[in-house]
UniProtKB/TrEMBL annotation:
Residues 16-473 form the Aldehyde dehydrogenase domain. The lineage of its organism: Bacteria, Pseudomonadati, Pseudomonadota, Gammaproteobacteria, Vibrionales. GO terms for molecular function: succinate-semialdehyde dehydrogenase (NAD+) activity. Keywords: Oxidoreductase. This is Aldehyde dehydrogenase domain-containing protein. It holds the Pfam family Aldedh. GO terms for cellular component: cytosol. The active site is at 252. Belongs to the aldehyde dehydrogenase family. GO terms for biological process: gamma-aminobutyric acid catabolic process. It comes from Photobacterium aphoticum.
Amino acid sequence: MHSALLKQACYVAGQWVTAHDGATDPVINPSTGQIIAQVPRMGREMTLAAIDAAQQAQQQWKQTTAKARSVILRRWYALMMEHIDDLATIMTTEQGKPFVEAKGEITYAASFVEWFAEEAKRAYGEVIPSHKTDARILASREPMGVVGAITPWNFPAAMITRKCAPAFAAGCGVVLKPAPDTPLCALALAVLAEEAGIPAGLFNVVTGDAQAIGGALTDSKTVKKISFTGSTAVGKLLMAQSAATVKKLSLELGGNAPFIVCDDADLDAAIEGIMIAKFRNAGQTCVCANRIYVHDAVYDAFTEKLVARVQALKVGDGFAPEVQIGPLINAAAVAKVQSHIDDALAKGARLAYGEPQPAGSFLFPPQVLVEMTDTMRIANEETFGPVAALFRFNDDADVIARANATDSGLAAYAYTRSLQRAFRFSEGLEYGMVGINEGLISTEVAPFGGIKESGLGREGGRQGLDDYLETKYTLLGGL
């Protein structure tokens, strides 16, 4: 591995810095439980310094041409792809996902940098027909300002580039607080950003006290926008804290995705879809299929096919050959998943397949639960683990109503051969994203985001740049 990418210091104002008092937090490999690094435990003071640095750098950066910003972002993209194995090694070590899957995430992360390198040149304004003969109306796009970005541990590279790439493309500076479980990916990306030519101070990475760092970002009048991916509870807290300074918010919060398999579905295709939508990243994704509704006419056949596929999954250390499911991130995650299983079994569900979770390990064997009901916790809470929970249904209108009976509204899936049904589900499901006969919906070219309590704003696609731009109206009179 390229040793220069493995940093144990924060990146502020173009400098690699440690805490004044020497305080650090450990980074733990979830596969082994071993401490692999120590990163600085920073707080409010360093965050404010990072905000000041971002503000100063942003004043110069916003005056560069879109083409100049695009060239630098393209270099960042190229460097990420050049060091894909190094970055994936860091990710598997600190996050646990299989190495092949980690490489896939680096490619996905880099795709946002490539996409927004091009979108930087497309922040179009417009000339509006005027109400006066001697006046002209212009609507122009300007960078929002300094952005506070707070990212999660489940996609420790992609969630950074999905925020930072459009921010830089728009002309903004960024102060990033990565998840405490996975800070090393963020610091490695900062190394490559610096090498690509991102100006000193434009990109800052601060690790440490989440409450102190988040509070400094939300309190600051200099920070004009908060972009957060994480739990709904924390998103609501950040929203409340940002109210005093009326910040722009992008919030990508929790999900409770329904996955609907109709009686006319291609069952083999639906199984392939569920293997991606349910078991990718050990089920630790915000768009993970949480409630699998299967039509009664195909329920038994679907269950049999699914169990056969799940039995073949290999669980283990992400660096071991052919491993498809790595560990959960920590002990709290293990406890939550097990509590959901225990609750379902106590209320009448049956375990169609599953092995006991090894004591003292974060590795969690995949499980298939059948005869689920809507009173169980899995029906109402995000599990975030490799548990496929199968519910029965008979009527399309009924399953749509059940699928919508949640405060979440991030992603939903439906499998059917009927064009009529495809539109019925697409339009009837109250979610920001719907996959019809597709289990993998994430792509840099489309807008990613939810409705209801799953968040605000969109990331990716042309819409992803909009959240980092303000629209200015200018009336030119006396012409």
